[in-house]
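Final report, Chapter 2: Outcomes

The project's central promise was a pipeline that accepts a single protein chain and returns its three-dimensional structure in a standardized token representation, suitable for archiving and comparison. That pipeline is now operational. To close this chapter, we reproduce one record exactly as it appears in the project archive, with the input sequence first and the structure output second.
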Amino acid sequence: MDTNPQWFRDSTPYISKHRNKTFVVLLEGGALAHANLVNVVHDLALVHVLGVRLVVVHGARQQIDQALGEASFHNGRRITRETDLPTLLGIFGEQRARLEALFSTGLPTSPLRETDIAVVSGNFITARPVGIVDGVDHLLTGRTRRVHSDRVNAALEAGALVMLSPMGYSPSGQVFNLAADELAADVALALGAEKLIVFNETGALTNPVGERISIMSPVELHGHLETGEQHLRSILRASRGGVRSCQIVSYAEDGALLTELFTAAGAGTQIRESYGALIRPANAEDVSSIVEVIRPLEEAGVLVRRSRDRLEEEIDHFLVADIDNNVVGCCAVYPFDGCAELACVAVHPSYRDTAALRNRNSGIGASLLEAAEQKAVDAGVERLFALTTQSRDWFVDHAFTDASLEDLPTPKQEMYNYQRNAQVMIKELVRHGR
């Protein structure tokens, strides 16, 4: 975690955005056995104190494996025998009590001193048996039948942190062993949670060259399912089911949760629906954010400098990429007679290491371009042109072709800056049916 106090100042919009939102957090068994668990709990407590409604689902696979030794599995799912149940319930109770104790620490040397966090558990989950799959009886292994969201919300409204163990009860009183990752996804969907946060050891997903992927779509996540990590399937289900943002962070990296939630750069991988859904017309309130995004590129000579007054005057021409009420990218479309200029295409550095490294037709920049093209087409424009000094390859990748100064509309020719010597790029637009 950066010790520079500026990061905390910059976290103000994130704190405001997250307040009163519901986050469901999955702590797998490995997290409960790791030396950094105490710091993870302290960070979760801080998030709670800042006004987030927290539901924590804990796993215990590692502890159960150690206790039961050889066990039967089918497609990665444990088959729970009746004789296993006392051991499982003992482990669940022990782990839940341990977490409750950590959230209750009030020693003068603890970050939780003078912080009173009520941790509530209960019969919030009704379960049903998995049953017989591929001829295999899963016995007392179950699935979520119902999340009693009214009870959970009542506890959250009262200011409590809700703690759930991976078990549920049938209407007849039978206890079932549940998969913690599936339970976390079920709870997030039932509560309409803003976020599902999954802690694992490695944290962020990476691209083929080992670079962190900070944000990706559910479609892109699907390509990672072959890694065999079961929680990825639950994250995909939650994301496609309507959870606005699912995030993977490392329980082994101190401060990873705070970096992920309260900084633009993040520390993990965020999964949310396609970038296109994040693009919207800019408004006057976005000017300061646009300045922050484009200023580094202006200083590097990639973009032509624009004064704040000019941005305010031309704001109706801009589109922005908005993530959690934070502008992370922008572009502008200026109409001319029969054509339009694409200008000021910029993405915040923290959001450039996306899956676009693998697929040039994905990512925030590509989505800004797609929205700009649609805006031009809706205005009856047939050609889009751009002037670039350092990004020719990106435009070529997106079907622009080299052109000459004479191909520009006359007003733009007269404004051409020969000192910059920018390359003219043109793309013919296709009007798609609706």
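Archive annotation: The two ends are 48 Å apart (CA to CA).
This record, like all others produced under the grant, will remain available to the consortium after the project formally closes.
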